[in-house]
Amino acid sequence: MLSRVAERIYWAARYLERAESTARLVSVYDSLLFDLPRSFNISWFNLIIINSGTELFHERYRVQDERNVVKFTLADDTNPSSMLSSLLMVRENIRTARDVLPAEAWELVNELRLFAKDNIQQGINRSGRHAFLEGIVEGCQGINGLLSGTMSRDPAWNFLRLGRNLERADMTTRLLDAGAAVLLSTDEGDSTSVDQLVWGNVLRSASADMPYRRTMRTAVNGPDVANFLLNDQYFPRSVRYCLERIVSSASELPHTGKQHRPIKLKLPQYTIEEDEHLGQNFRDHLNDVQLKLMDVHDCICGNWFLHD
Of 101, 290, 242, which is closest to residue 90 (Cα–Cα)? Predict the structure, then answer.
């Protein structure tokens, strides 16, 4: 397979996962609006900080309110990580790799992008946001289901898995960061009553509430949720699971003529104590994990994409 085709498949998978995960990330905050006490003030701007978009946001908007943050995150075409921008890039990368992907994938991607574009105002406005975000998540899952059910387990499939799992691991850390950011803005005295609501919403946004209960067999709490989403070996959105799939996919791909760097699984060490308040130290750890994932991306690019 030509490296440029492999790279397009890799990026199609990343952008598809990014579109879905962006919808999940906004969903965390959207759900908390209904669950938290009215007196609790959620800073929507945390979503911009979590996605490293502060500078670009300030170039476009003066006010850091809910509407501007949601518009920038979901719809702004000057934001390369917005949901609409991600879906456009899925379409472009699949269009140029159609020879090795199922024909139905092209049709589903076009349908999803048109749905998102035609209904984006529903996502920006609070009243219809939940249904819109659910539609995006379901559409992305439908495309991933088609690819999983119809693709031969050849190099194209493994490049797809590399992109999907790397992006998924990264966005899982950002979901955790979103929860921690909300709790950091809570008065210490209120944190116990709010903790379960926040982490319960994080689990639901990752479709992890049932797997968490079956595995952890304990009430929802920050340390256990963090351990589950970072370290569980069976849940497909945990960072550990995603990294193990990355290593597995990489091992199935041929080495290139250049010096081949093995993809290393080891992440920065951080012990989450049972009674820990997941504050700034935990957020710093999540940032370290994201930097490690960037190293994995660089390794993938160096091994397979930077030649022809």
Answer: 101
